[in-house]
Amino acid sequence: MADITLTQNVASHRYEAHVDGQLAGYCEYNLLTDAIMFTHTEVLEAFEGQGVGSAIARHVLDAARSEGKHVIPVCQFIAGYIRKHRDYADLVRPDIQRAFKI
């Protein structure tokens, strides 16, 4: 697994993953009053299969938890990660859990 550094790029509304200083992937978001909506996650082709996507998902969900925010996983990757890792299911805003099959 690669050594992945994760940061929040507030100006671009996304979290970014870097490997050896190179952008490896990102997760775009929109901030709402009581939640963070994850809209798109992408891992650049050169970094696929190295755990970048999972590292991003863990990081953004842990950040939401630490900030006391619910999540709205419009991004199918984040929604799928939550379905596989049920310890994050409580973060999904209650009124939309059924819609996302969480």
Q: How is this structure best described in words?
A:
With 102 residues, this protein is of the alpha+beta class. The protein has one domain: 3-Layer(aba) Sandwich (Aminopeptidase). It is 24% helix and 34% strand. It is built from two helices and five strands. It has helices at 52-66, 76-84, and strands spanning 4-9, 14-19, 22-31, 35-43, 70-73. A five-stranded mixed beta sheet has the order 1-2-3-4-5. A hairpin with a 4-residue loop joins strand 1 and strand 2 (14-19). The longest helix has 15 residues, at 52-66. The protein starts with a strand and ends in an 18-residue tail after the last helix. The model has no long low-confidence stretch (mean pLDDT 95).
Kindly state the number of beta strands. Answer: 5
What is the subunit arrangement here? single chain
CA-atom Rg in angstroms: 13 Å
What is the strand content?
25-35%
Strand count, sense and closure of the main sheet?
A: 5 strands, mixed
The CATH architecture can be named as 3-Layer(aba) Sandwich
According to CATH, what is the topology?
Aminopeptidase
Spell out the CATH superfamily. Answer: Gcn5-related N-acetyltransferase (GNAT)
What spatial form do the alpha-carbon principal axes imply?
globular
Sheet with the most strands: spatial strand order: 1-2-3-4-5
Continuous helix count: 2
What is the count of distinct domains?
1
Helix content: 10-25%
